[in-house]
Specification:
- The chain is an alpha+beta fold.
- The chain has a single domain, classed as Nucleoside Triphosphate Pyrophosphohydrolase (Alpha-Beta Complex), CATH 3.90.79.10.
- About 25% of the residues lie in helices and about 35% in strands.
- It has 4 helices and 9 strands.
- Strands 3, 4, 5, 6, 7, 8 and 9 form a 7-stranded mixed β-sheet that branches. A two-stranded antiparallel ribbon has the order 1-2.
- α3 packs antiparallel against α4.
- The protein is globular.
């Protein structure tokens, strides 16, 4: 059972903790992490979400991500989620915070996405993918990925234009 901190719309903890399912059902604000891995060739590692996930099954998304558990800080969530979903060990020193995205979607999912980039060269064959969450991972050329996202291709998890502007600016700086 995953307990999450209930937040106000500005990201402040309210002192209430709820099960993830209750937070989603009630539309409470909560926090997540999005991890974008980029290699020295300027490629982005994306995951194709499992067809069994509750939200956006079968769509392409960030490299790793998930909820920040009750009492957990965002950096610890990045380390945990990256290991859980891909079997990849990262350190807090490798993590670069980019921005927080306020996200309200059509699924009554009100969350604050803490977005991070990790620059790391990895071989995807060395990863241990969690099949309950991730179908596969693949390297995407940054320029082609950006073009696909701007076309609003429905094979990607939807995010706002503002999210992508900030993300692409940061990825280009780091690449």
């Amino acid at each position: 059972m995953e307990y999450l901190d209930v937040l106000d719309e500005f990201g402040n903890k309210t002192g209430v903790k709820k099960l993830r399912e209750e937070i989603h059902k009630d539309g409470d604000w909560h926090a997540c992490v999005h991890v974008w891995l980029i290699n020295s060739s300027g490629q982005i590692l994306l995951q194709k979400r499992s067809s069994n996930t509750r939200t956006y099954p079968g769509l392409w998304a960030y490299s790793a991500g998930g909820h920040i558990l009750a009492g957990e800080n965002p950096e610890d969530a990045v380390v945990r989620e990256t290991f859980e979903e891909m079997g990849l060990t990262v350190t807090k020193d490798e993590i670069k915070f980019i921005f927080i995205n306020k996200n309200q979607d059509i699924l009554n999912n009100n969350q604050l996405d803490h977005v991070f980039i990790i620059k790391k060269d990895i071989n995807i064959q060395d990863l241990t993918i969690d099949p309950t969450e991730v179908e596969k991972v693949e390297w995407f050329d940054l320029v082609n990925f950006e073009k696909l996202k701007r076309q609003r291709d429905p094979v990607f998890v939807p995010k706002s234009d503002q999210y992508h502007e900030k993300l692409f600016a940061a990825l280009h700086r780091i690449a």
